[in-house]
## 1
Amino acid sequence: MTSSEALSHAQEILEKYLLERGLRRTEERLEVLRTIYEELTHFDADSLHRHLLERGLRISRATIYNTLDLFVSCGLVKRYAFAEGRTLYERSVGRRQHDHLICIECGHIQEFCDPQLGLVVEGVGRLFHMNPVHHDLVVYAHCQVEGCPHRSENSTFATK
Amino acid sequence: MTSSEALSHAQEILEKYLLERGLRRTEERLEVLRTIYEELTHFDADSLHRHLLERGLRISRATIYNTLDLFVSCGLVKRYAFAEGRTLYERSVGRRQHDHLICIECGHIQEFCDPQLGLVVEGVGRLFHMNPVHHDLVVYAHCQVEGCPHRSENSTFATK
DNA sequence: GTTCCTGCAAAGAGTTTGCATTGTG
DNA sequence: CACAATGCAAACTCTTTGCAGGAAC
């Protein structure tokens, strides 16, 4: 699935969701969705706000938080609580389930998939008679090479 | 290791750590450590504060946050960032590495151990040339039985 | 006596809320 | 034209900070 396919798929999901519940198809919601699907990978409310401003869109924080809640509800966006109290979001349509490896030096986030993990989660569910719905595995690690290769690029840690 | 053994072991670690760095062995630090090791499993700064008050100890929030930072630094306490922006702590001396299964209905936290998970973490580290230091796996699940068995007991979710 | 620690109150970050206004259906 | 969504500012929660007084060594 290309990224523009993911966007149009996401737009369909959104419009269907809005229609079903009598919610409104506002320009703001569409713009936020476009911005997320075109420009952002792991982001917080504030970086979404800045990206919108750079596109010439003045959308209030209240609307951003509302919209993110809406998108999480309809599965267009996932919300993560990483260490340091960071709440980060990522688009979820057209991407497969994955987990996160975070560099302790710079906060760079590497995604990874491990099919073994699904087995661990299922096993735990069986053991405690619970039905796992989702899970987050975050691995915190140091780079092996001297100096972190992502030190300059950084997004989230360095700006703290 | 019994829980009082864990406390005295934790006290030794704390005193050694303080001595090594020329930090002070204050009554507040000792009381906070005692309270955590005697009364708390998964807790936030505010519930620690309430437990201290119930013991007749008036310790300011500033000191609580300072002390928690100190205890995290010397490994006496672990800090977790769960969903909903909850920062929770738990004592770590005398307990083995474990992960968390959280009931979506009530927020009840079940601990579990799965040796497979260590292999997953190591594998990811090798793949990306990083040295994993620690990891958090949180599984969110629904109870299979009708109505959640922990619904009344709750600690963190219900009070939100 | 020096330095670290505590408590208080104020400040700060991130998020939520109330309400008047705007715009979709 | 009804009602949902937006924008703004104020409120709120959790955490951090600055500073004066107090305690450990």
## 2
Amino acid sequence: MEPETVMDAALELMDEGALTMRALASRVGLTPGALYTYFPDRAALVSAVADRLLAEADLTLLDAPGLSPHDRIESFALALREVLLRHPAAVPAILGAAFSGPTALHVGESLLRELSDPRASYTVMVYVLGAIALEAAELEGPPPPEEERIALRRTYLVVDPEAFPLTHAANDVIAAYISTDQFRWGLRRLLSAP
Amino acid sequence: MEPETVMDAALELMDEGALTMRALASRVGLTPGALYTYFPDRAALVSAVADRLLAEADLTLLDAPGLSPHDRIESFALALREVLLRHPAAVPAILGAAFSGPTALHVGESLLRELSDPRASYTVMVYVLGAIALEAAELEGPPPPEEERIALRRTYLVVDPEAFPLTHAANDVIAAYISTDQFRWGLRRLLSAP
DNA sequence: ACCTGAACACCGTTCAAGT
DNA sequence: ACCTGAACACCGTTCAAGT
């Protein structure tokens, strides 16, 4: 059996919020102990899944000809966000393995090519991963449509207007914090810094 | 026994990388089952610890008189980073409870007071929490001195110069990605956006 | 190398019963 | 309300033994 088969099943189980070595073994038709032939332990398996997931975003967007560096970064960031939000339970693992994995290295190198100052490219990584992590944190599984999610937040996030007047007044904008528009707005703001 | 006693012991155990309900019970001199009088389940306990930890950063920095809005945000962000990096294992829980907790609500309100556009205040939150999360992800317990950590990264992060020339060339800056200077640099860049 | 069966040393949570 | 003792239904990981 290919390790990829095991990793795909592991991602499925993460999406269902129930990744255990035993459940994974049963899903791929093995005994729990047999999994340790493929990965030394659970943590290694999760790291491998995280790197595989990272590679699902189209890395070539970062080298797309005919686009400005900022547009390349924006289109890749949007693609990455889309991939990762479909698997919110895997996002913490991505944060953990953000630097170590081979795919992350590739992304880092491309990012350095687009921005002259390495400090700026790290700032972009921090923003992109931070935004995705905050959005993922409030998802249980694959996300419902964005409009639905925003509408839910609008009713969910009501606060005491006396104690938190500004938060109360900004309710609609705050509900849309998890929107693609807000994500793009923040990224552009960061990229437009002098 | 006060719930705070239980929460403090829980944070201790998180720092040691070994928070279990059984270990917690034994540390505070109770039976595992007795903990469920204080918190409905493990997740609720962790959320409560996260909020308590968030409150350890000096919230009054966000209202300090005589400082510009940007300086208030910077000093609070630095204080928050210091508190959270002392407890890296608790940071994922902070990300998860970033919006729900009562203390987070207070921080959000203050941030809205400092910046005219709510979208900008969210962008700052994303950056600050993202940077802290990435730094925390590579810590096992309370962090060694910064210089030591950077020096370790400098030798740790060596890559193939042929495959990743820009990453190789920027090694020193990349090693310092987890520095206070880099954190401040990115934050200022974000705040200086037009 | 890959896999099974069985075990070891743990988990979180529940619940009758006591105070 | 708070706590104990004991149980239930799980975990990850190891390892002799088989192929």
